[in-house]
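Need tokens for this chain, all 432 residues.
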Amino acid sequence: MRKVALVALLALALPASAAAHATLREATPSFRAELDRGPKHVTLTFDQPVTLPVIHVYDMRGRDYAGLTLPLGLEIEAPVRALKRGVYTVRWHATSADSHAVGGVFTFGVGVPAPPPTEAYGASGPTTTEHVVRWLYFVSLALLLGGLGFRLLCLRGVEVPQRVENRLALLTGIGVVSVLEVGILAFCLRAEDALQMPFGKFLYGDLSPISGGTRFGVAFVAMTLGYALVAALLFLAWLTDRPRPFLLPAFAIAIGFASGLSLSGHSAVDAGASWKSELADWVHLSAGSLWLGGLVALILAVWRVAPELRRLAMRRFSQLATVLVALLVAAGVYLSVLRLPHVSDLWTQTYGQILLVKLCLVSVALAWGGFHRTFVVPALERANDRFLTRVGRSMLGESLVGVAVLLAAAVLVDSAPPPQPARTPPISAAPR
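Here are the structure tokens for all 432 residues:
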């Protein structure tokens, strides 16, 4: 009855009204266009007239090639001096009829492909704040995937007490809400860096070149929609007395949409990237999330509140963790070999040094888990309560090391791998 009352209360919430502001409808040159010769003008078309318009056309050294911006009804236009071969960044801003400052950024190339707007002139790249936000995203994803995986795989065929169901529902609920909210924050930070606008003005910036013109943006939109569906399924599972029919599709969708990170990261865009590297990255991410998140679920949802399930849950989780660790290590080794051309890159390149830190942390976590698998699990049947309490503390320490691994992974994802050596063309046979 309380759940129904809560749903009714949520249904009474009124949506906030949104004020209309000018929206960019068309740009010439278009976003990320590759032109044979430089344009004579940059023209932007809006859905309503704007005032105080300014257009800048920068090369990658920061030189501005745009002249005075003129308002032409629904269009604004700026003449452009002769452009040489290269990449150019268009930054614009104006004031719409509702007094909101609007702005945007996009790139185009003359004789060369244009980079995404996240690599436009003026964008500074990932910051410490973005590292922390990505780490929080990884932790949230681990709570979601690990909580669902633990409930479906380690507690299958078991009469699960309601208190355990409630803990797991809370854990996965926190995970999916955090994935959505932290994902939005990560997108906003990346977009704000690309737009180079103060946050108050950034709220009305044109994000379409980023959301629809980059792998990162497309993945963000798809993952947000996917995890919103997961949140709805988890909510329905919480409302009903039989959650499993809702948890199964929620788990499948959640682990499937985790591939968005692999399809928009280094494994998809760097030199040597292929479907194999994308698949390996997805396996690596999924296995690590299931392992760490499942360990947290075991500690918080079973070990502390359901002593009668401790032995069964840990034995099954240990079996699952063995498979996950094998997948994690295999995929990680493949990706490391692919991204580091030389072994010396581990200590001479920034990317390699961060990877080395991650490998050390992973080794500690694997050794800790191996100790539990080899010595603790066989002793569970004859263990007393004091021993089980110490085991719980030990697993908590293992999980904290896993959280540190995710922090290293977050920094690693935002770092550029060392450049791949140029391939030497095959030497053709000399004519006889």
